[in-house]
Amino acid sequence: MAARVASRAVCGAALRFALFHFNKSSQISSRRWLNLQEYQSKQLMQDCGVTVQRFFVADTANSALEAAKKLKAKEIVLKAQILAGGRGKGVFDSGLKGGVHLTKDPVIVGELANQMLGFSLTTKQTPTEGVKVKKVMVAEALDISRETYFAILMDRACNGPVMVGSPQGGVDIEEVAASTPELIFKEVIDIFEGVTDVQAVRMAANLGFKGHLQKQAADQIKKLYDLFLKVDATQVEVNPFGETPEGQVVCFDAKINFDDNAEFRQKEIFAMDDTSEGDPLETEAAKYDLKYIGMDGNIACFVNGAGLAMATCDIIDLHGGKPANFLDLGGGVKESQVYQAFKLLTADPKVEAILINIFGGIVNCAIIANGITKACRELGMTVPLVVRLEGTNVQEAKRILQESGLPIMSASNLDDAAKKAVACVAKK
Ligand code: GDP
Ligand code: MN
């Protein structure tokens, strides 16, 4: 599966996979968890009493320079704001190396910001063309004597929140999980009880904090959990969760994901959503309550339900084809959604055939058939269309398609449909 923007959310999913052997299909859930930029996440942390560095956000080189002066800090750290991680080791198309820079001179902050803003930053987690940087964070730099990893996430296997930590922080946590799993520590949290003092101190000790730093770290851990609950997060990740030589525990980086089901009571947070980094087709699809996932092949899949989507992709693959995407209609479908779905599918120039695979349980096949014929006519579709409908009102649906006079290929079952779609593409 190649969801295109491998955001830091995906990084979290990978971690979850490494730690808890999540079923693969759960990573391709229909949920689109809200993702915020580091500066937004840090603002939320600050509001909960979590220790972060003093910072400003800038969207021009000049305001970055001004912010650097205003900080009056011994040293300044300048950080490109994109949703993907691994920024420290990233490269800009301006030639600048590194999305995180430390300097003592505000003038250099301005110069560096000039090579970041408006340029694309490519990291291990971005698409190869990178992500355009529109904002930078200008923060007071602190010395780091030790980098640890700390996260709280909702875990299916535990039916609730889990704390995950490692004394080996700052680096790729997936790598730590793979090569030294004994350095990953877990604490299952009882949602009714919250993080207990014993758990917070044990985690802090496992992270390698000693003496008064251990107390401080435990306190930060409890505050991060308060934040996790307060904002309906699915993940709060701090890497590095570090200590300074002056004896302070600080969250140097921040990544928070939010549960989309909580949007109704987290309006302020969801209003901060910046969709400009996402796949524009996925964003467009979300507007119509459709779930779209882009892939690399040339056969578009139009299905209802994530399970059927997976099965359809697999069977296309089995017959030697490659899915270009899948669009999941979900349950209560309206004719207008079918129309929008077609518009989205055909907007992708890679698409050379469309396979419609609908199992009408809740969905009425006749509504789908009407949507298909309307979309075909109004959008002047030219790509071949293979349709397999089954279930509620299927006879009526087949009649509508047949009488439409449109060049729609009917398939008797999923296997037949996949073969026909692959054949269409092979002919080209
Ligand atoms: P990421 O690469 O996208 O995860 O960005 P981070 O915010 O984690 O920064 C990358 C690395 O830069 C961290 O692991 C730190 O080693 C370093 N770094 C970030 N902020 C500071 C700072 O204030 N002081 C120092 N000394 N190093 C920092
Ligand atoms: Mn980091």
UniProtKB/TrEMBL annotation:
Keywords: GTP-binding, Ligase, Magnesium, Metal-binding, Mitochondrion, Nucleotide-binding, Tricarboxylic acid cycle
GO molecular-function terms, A-Z: ATP binding; GTP binding; magnesium ion binding; succinate-CoA ligase (ADP-forming) activity; succinate-CoA ligase (GDP-forming) activity
Lineage top rank: taxon: Eukaryota
GTP-binding is among the record's keywords: yes
Cofactor: Mg(2+)
GO cellular component, one term: succinate-CoA ligase complex
Pathway involvement of the protein, from the record: Carbohydrate metabolism; tricarboxylic acid cycle; succinate from succinyl-CoA (ligase route): step 1/1
GO biological process: succinyl-CoA metabolic process; tricarboxylic acid cycle
Domain ATP-grasp fold succinyl-CoA synthetase-type, chain residue ranges per copy: 35-241
Site for Important for substrate specificity, residues: E75, D143
Chain residues that bind substrate: N304, G361, I362, V363
The keyword Ribosomal protein is assigned to this record: no
Cofactor stoichiometry and binding remark: Binds 1 Mg(2+) ion per subunit.
Localisation: Mitochondrion
Binding locations of Mg(2+): N239, D253
Protein name as catalogued: Succinate--CoA ligase [GDP-forming] subunit beta, mitochondrial
